[in-house]
Amino acid sequence: MTENQVIAETEKKQKPLMNQFLQVVNNHELSHSYLFNGEEGVGKLSLALFITMRMFCKNVSDDSMPCGHCDECRRIAEQQHPDVVIIKPEGLSIKVDQIRYLKSEFSKSGLEGNQKFFIVCDAEKMTTGAANSLLKFIEEPVANIVSFLLTTNKNLILPTIISRTQVVDLNPLNTKMFNEELTNLGVIPSQFKIIKRLTNQMSTVQEWQEDEWLTKVISAISQWFSMLVQRDNTSFVLVQSNIMPLVSDNSKRQVIIDMLLSIFEDVLDAKYTGSKDYNFPKQAQNIEQLSQSINEAKLIQIMEVILNCNNQMAVNVSFQNILEATTLKIMKILNS
C-alpha cells in the first residue's frame, strides 16, 4: 500500500477507531501492546500502520493526521521502515525463530529515533513455542516500544498474552464495503449472497476465484438441484462426474455441504417468506417450483439429511458415498 492508501483505507473502514487512536496519541496515552481482533479485510493492518505513521510523521497536520507524504509515512506504508518490524507467517505458521528475531530487534535502539514499533500479522498462527516466547517478552514491556498483534480469532491467542494487551475489536465491514471488496476480487454480483453465507474471509474468496472454482461449484450444484426438482433418478450420477472433481480438500467438502443446504434454504424462503433474494438466483424458477410442490415436513426432512452429512464426515465415510447416499435419500423423500 502507498501512504495515502493506508490513510484512505483506515478512514473508510475504521474511522471511529482512527479518531479514537488520534486522541490517544495526542494525550500521550498509547499503550505498549494492542491486540486487534477482527474479520479478514476489516483494516487491522492499515489501522496499525496508520497509528505508526502518526507516531513517526514529521509533518503532522493541524487535525493530528499524519501527512501521508513525508519519507517516514512512505516507508512505513511500504513496510520498509527500519524501526517498524512486521512479522507474517512463514508458510502456515509464525515460528519461534521469527519471534526470537523480533525480540532481538526489540533489544536494539531505534535506528532513526528512540521508538520502535512491531506488528505481528495473523498472530493466531503462532506456534506454541512462538507464543510462549512472545509472552515472556511482553510480560516486561520496554519504554518507547509498541506492538500490535493482529488476529481474526482472539480465542486462539493464549489467555496470558491477551491479559497483557489491550484488546480492540474491529467492526466488520458493512454490506456496501463487503460488496466492494468482493467486486475488487472479481466476484460477480449474483454470487455475493452465497459467498456471505459461506465465509467472511477475503483470502478464502480469493482462493475460490482461482480457476473459477466457485463458479464451477455453483454450476455443478445448480445442475444437481435442477435434476432433483425434475425427479430425475440419475441425479446421483452427477456427484461423481460433476461435483467430486471439484473437491480437493476437507475445507471444500464443508463448502459443498453448506451450499447444498443453502439451496434448500432458498426453497424454504420461497415457500414461507416470499423472498426472492436467493443464494442461487439463477435457480429461481426451480426453487419456486419446488417450494410449491413440497410440504414443510418433507422440506425439513431433506435439510436434516443434508445436515447429517457433517456427522458422516466426522467418522471418515467416503465423501462421494456421502453425497450419493444423500442424493438418493432426497430423491426418495421427493417421490414419497
TrEMBL record:
Species annotation: Apilactobacillus nanyangensis
Keyword vocabulary terms for this entry: DNA replication, DNA-directed DNA polymerase, Nucleotidyltransferase, Transferase
Pfam family membership, one: DNA_pol3_delta2
Record EC number: 2.7.7.7
Protein name: DNA polymerase III subunit delta'
Domain named DNA polymerase III delta subunit C-terminal: residues: 250-313
Domain of life: Bacteria
Catalysed reactions, as listed in the record: DNA(n) + a 2'-deoxyribonucleoside 5'-triphosphate = DNA(n+1) + diphosphate
The UniProt record lists the keyword Nucleotidyltransferase: yes
GO molecular function, one term: DNA-directed DNA polymerase activity
